Amino acid sequence: MTKTALITGATSGIGKVTAQLLAKNNYKIILCGRREDRLNDLKQELSKLTKVYTLNFDVRDKIAVFDSINSIPENFATIDILINNAGNAHGLDPIQNGNLDDWDAMIDINVKGLLYVSKAVIPGMIERKSGHIINIGSIAGKEVYPNGNVYCASKHAVDALNQAMRMDLNPYGIRVGGIHPGAVETEFSEVRFKGDTEKAANVYKGFEPLHAEDIADIIHFVVSRPYHVNIADLMVLPTAQAAATILKKEI
Ligand code: NDP
Ligand code: 8X3
């Protein structure tokens, strides 16, 4: 039977390419994000391949999250797969210089947003006693690096929540797994550096980073395993990266 996947952060990077790959593989897709023009463009592109529905909400807005998810029409309402991908880093400053708005954004989007969306989707999974939740963490959720403070804390929280969800949802046959990428070239660094494209491009100079396609391939692999297989935790790095700050760069 055709499965339905709800993907947060589907307007860019890992989420967008995952939507494209799952659409090619015949999953029905619910695309989520704030940038409505991008949602509409992607819907138009993917509708040639599969059935697509869009939800335009900010994961920080809990009323919008619940209203949006509760408004999903009947033919998309059975969410088999939830990909909790929306998230970003905001700033890269030592803790003493940290910007409070950046801190709020990272905690509110990466942690609370993931919780709100999960809370809205999980009841249907519990009722059906089936479902699969993929939480996109980060190498920043497995280790801490200088100036990464609050972003790392938010992704450590995602790692903890991934483990906690797997335990709490175990009685209901719901699979839960985390994927933790290292450096992936997306809009991530542009967001972190507030639109400074040169600074963002520099992050990926001198080595081959992961591409969004690499993570999308892995997400597709994870969600297409037979039901008795749950890939619980995966860290995926570019070959040039050994740890958050250990990169073999050709200069
Ligand atoms: P992008 O910036 O390319 O994509 C981020 C996505 O998140 C966008 O679709 C954006 O959509 C969405 N998003 C951001 N804020 C909100 C919000 N408040 N409400 C709803 N959606 C939001 O980055 P990536 O694809 O790289 O990031 C995807 C995930 O992967 C993130 O969780 C990130 O932390 C994680 N990650 C990324 C790594 C990397 O090196 N790139 C490495 C490890 C993990 P819109 O703006 O339209 O709302
Ligand atoms: C994104 C990768 O190394 O900037 O999560 O934290 S890193």
Automatic annotation (TrEMBL):
InterPro entries: NAD(P)-bd_dom_sf, Sc_DH/Rdtase_CS, SDR_fam. Pfam families: adh_short. Keywords: Oxidoreductase. Belongs to the short-chain dehydrogenases/reductases (SDR) family. This is NADP-dependent 3-hydroxy acid dehydrogenase YdfG. It comes from Flavobacterium tiangeerense.
